[in-house]
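At this stage, I needed to go through a protein sequence along with its fold in token form, as given directly below:
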Amino acid sequence: MLLPLMRMPAKAQGHSMINRRSWLLGALSMATVPFVAHAQAPPRSVRIGLLASSSPSSTESGHIWGAFFQALRDFGWAEGQNVVFEGRYYGDSVERLPAFAAELVSLQVDVIVAGAPPAPEAARRATSVIPIVMANHSDPVVSKLVTSLARPGGNVTGLSMLSREMRVKQLQLLREILPQLTSVAFLRHRDIPLDVTELEISARSLRFSTHVIEVRAPNDLPDAFSMATRQRAGAMSVLAGSMFFAQRALIAELAIKSRLPTVYLLREHAAAGGLLTYGVDLRDNYRRAAGYVDKILRGARPGDLPIEQPTKLELVINLKTAKALGMTIPRSVLARADQIIE
């Protein structure tokens, strides 16, 4: 267990060295203040609420939460010493979210860390006072969680995955690997606010017709792929949502069964059998979310902390899935991949 960072006392100095030391401290004060401020021990014990679809102990997201906890320890916040975590994990039962968010509010946690939509929305409906840090939201402005990315206002801040911009790149990748493609289906969660207008405009600029297919529960997924097939979609793009992450193995299986090349935002989808992912590294997002938590616990107001955008984008290609679909990925695309699963 890592101990909180402590500020060490200065060693005693001889009388003849007092003037020299004072001069050195004055000259270096501007350079040392930021380091000392970062190295100070956390001021108090705190309670942090975790609201997400899967728990840190699960195999599907343990590595992601692990990055968050490690970053907090690096800032000096350690469970069992100065932090108590209160976790509420809803799995596929989105209907439990309002009650879980209300429980965290009743526990008077100091900050709520919310995973993918619709967790941040549920937390915001439960409180306008307790700070909320989003770890990986697709579009907090469209969801009306924040006023703008630069000036969030209110009690919500964190990270945006900029899904629309990355989706445009995904569409371009589809054009490269499927030159004859004419139609794309977008799979979205019905309860997650998302403006697909720009995506549809971008798709049309690439000469794709589009179909938006909505689902609400895992049981809707087989019908969604059947609908995409009936609509003669040549590929599918899976939009943001915690349910899609939790059901990534099922979605990959349905995509192969339907002979439908499918693209995603998160590398975990490719590891579960998805064809291609282009997007953020969730572990990096959760590490950065810990920085927001640290700032807030030390006194920063969430509304003053700008929403950060991805700094690390990655392309992952699953060649086993490409083979199962009877596809050949162009070498020009493979050369740009950050990871190739064979």
